[in-house]
Amino acid sequence: MRRMKLLLCLALACSTPISMTGCTAAGGSVGAHAELDLGVIKVGASVQVNAQGQKLFVIVNPTDTEAWIQPVDSNGNPIGDPLPIPPGGSVELPPGADDKKSHLVKKPEPTPPPAEPKPVPGTSSPRQLGLNLVTAQPAPMLWGGGTTSFGEDGTSSAAEYSIAAVNIRAVFQTLAQLDQGQTPANAMLVCRTSLTPLTASSASLNIVLPSNNVASFRVYVNGALVASSASGLGGAIVTYSADGYGYGSATIPFSAGASSNSIQVITVDHLGVPTTRSMSYAW
Asked: Rounded to a whole number, what is the largest CA-CA distance in the chain?
């Protein structure tokens, strides 16, 4: 009886040369085998049923020629892409594939690469120009930043910078370099003021700005004018250096023992525009 079923499977396979047909042996775990002759290659069809009654459909290629099979469901709808069957190898059809409708197909043609857009007349494509396209990077913006330092002897320094950076994180990285004494190229000094005690009641004040930003300066301590480069009060003078900066200096009253010292520095640029900077020291 088992031999009769096997012969029946072979007959069906030969009468329907495009389909993979198989019949299972009753009660066994090994099913029928068939050989399909398409004139070019022959492939074997094997239907296996495991102990749980699940049907496994396997296609075997005993030849030395590659074959391709298109799995389809019972309604004839393709299931995925055609599957290759290597020479001397086999392939298991996916779940839901119909063993009577799955069929051999020609080797699929490779997908052609996307067509390169045609250049507008009068222009050249990036490939023709030999350009390597890169992702545009965000343009840096100008940020204001500053560093300060205070010594135990009463010295202090405050520096203001204009920093070119893409974000605030890059600004802090630049400020850290400046604090370490480095001179990053993306930071330009806007102003530096420093105070150095000379005696118990006096101190030296220095200011540095780009030369076009300081034509003169005045200094007030607790509201009283104590230095002026216009009159020479407090020995205030402005000198210009080849480095492009103007340097102002003056001697001002400053008591380290006072409860507070409020200092205002007013600079006037070459266009007559004043700028005020204020500093407070408290003990």
From this structure: 127
Same domain, 93 and 160: no
Domain that holds residue 201: 141-282
Angle at 204 between CA 214 and CA 151, to 5 degrees: 110
Helix (H), strand (E) at residue 5: helix 2-15
Residues 147 and 87 in one domain: no
Give the residue from 68, 65, 55 showing the smallest Cα distance to 88: 65
What's the number of domains the chain is made of?
Answer: 2
3-state secondary structure of 137: coil
pLDDT of residue 106 exceeding 90, the answer is no
Phi, psi of 123 (to 5 degrees): -125, 170
Beta bridge partners of 208: 192, 247
Residue 128 φ then ψ, to 5°: -65, -35
Whether 42 has a pLDDT exceeding 80, the answer reads no
Are the beta carbons of 268 and 276 closer than 8 angstroms? no
Put residue 76 in one of left, alpha, beta given phi > 0 → left and psi -120 to 50 → alpha: left
Looking at per-residue pLDDT, the higher value among 190 and 50 belongs to 190
Single-letter residue type at 202 = S
